[in-house]
Amino acid sequence: MRLTRHTDHAFRALIYMGLLEGGELVTIGRIAEDYAISRNHLMKVMQKLVQNGFVASTRGKHGGVRLGASPHEIRLGDVARVTEAQDQVNACLDSNGDQECPLQPECPLHQAMGEAMEAFYAVLDRYTLADMLAEPDRLGALLGLQNTSAVSGR
């Protein structure tokens, strides 16, 4: 399975915010710039993360975004379920799929592919954002961040 860019950007943005000292606010533009990704695309991703409580946003001149929950509470599987537009490995498992397959009513792939999806999310569910932030100084240095947060202290 290949995750969408939406989910990839969500994971990266959460890691970025998790590295900031004391829940410091950061702009979406700054995150996009430091990762060299599209600001417009990241804004769409952030909107979904805010709607689901993973991120908190503050409007205004000194506004920005920060984690909306503790890194220990943010499960990667939950983030992927929210950000993946499609949750099926192949189109035939999607009831809204555009292509009709003559095997669809009795397809032997349905069970195997369904189990594969469950296993994929089960693995992601074992990890939290805190697990991804185990080496904050090293990750922060790669992004040019100073004074990165120690997750265990949150």
Offer a concise description of the structure.
The protein has 154 residues and is mostly helical. Helices cover 47% and strands 5% of the residues.
Any chance you could write out the topology, listing elements then pairs?
Blueprint: H1 5-19, H2 28-35, H3 39-51, E1 55-58, E2 64-67, H4 76-83, H5 109-125, H6 129-132, H7 136-143
Antiparallel strand pairs: 1-2
Distance between the termini: 33 Å
Which CATH architecture of the domain at 5-86 and 129-153? Orthogonal Bundle
How many strands, what sense, and barrel or not for the largest sheet?
A: 2 strands, antiparallel
Summing up helix and strand content along with how strands pair, one would put the structural category as mainly alpha
Strand order of the largest sheet: 1-2
The CATH class assignment of the domain at 5-86 and 129-153 is Mainly Alpha
Q: Secondary-structure element sequence?
A: HHHEEHHHH
Give an overview in words.
This protein is mainly alpha-helical and 154 residues long. Helix content is 47%, strand content 5%. The protein has a domain at 5-86 and 129-153: Orthogonal Bundle (Arc Repressor Mutant, subunit A). It has helices spanning 5-19, 28-35, 39-51, 76-83, 109-125, 129-132, 136-143, and strands spanning 55-58, 64-67. The longest helix is centred in the C-terminal third of the chain and has 17 residues, at 109-125. It starts with a helix and ends in an 11-residue tail after the last helix.
